């Protein structure tokens, strides 16, 4: 698990370099809220979990996203329209409370009309959205996200965005 934590830290550092100007247009990019960490169980080495860290680009860069320097090995992730179920929680997002909150969201979904809509074909099991700086101690806001499949007719509107 420690090597996965190092990987996430390394990826976060590369994202930090990117927003500080390590991109082909040398643009400094305002860090948006939230930082999203998506977990894919069994996709890592020896069937461990793989993690993808993303942040949304500000509106200013949506039409023409800056390209990261090649050595950063970052890929843009243009999101297509999708719906998510969300559970909000406070404190620091740590493995113990993330798993607990993801379980509560799954239980809540299983008892709702959305139960059959959980995206079982999604490559991501769940994502964690963190809205605060790591230096903020009190009043922290986090969310667990799970993709659900619903049509536009059932309230899922299209809103394409680009993230790194």
UniProtKB/TrEMBL annotation:
Q: Where are the transmembrane segments?
A: none
Record family assignment:
Belongs to the HEBP family.
Task: Specify the protein name.
Answer: Heme-binding protein 2-like
* Organism in which the protein naturally occurs: Solanum pennellii (Tomato)
Q: What is the lineage of its organism?
A: Eukaryota, Viridiplantae, Streptophyta, Embryophyta, Tracheophyta
Write the gene name: LOC107019013
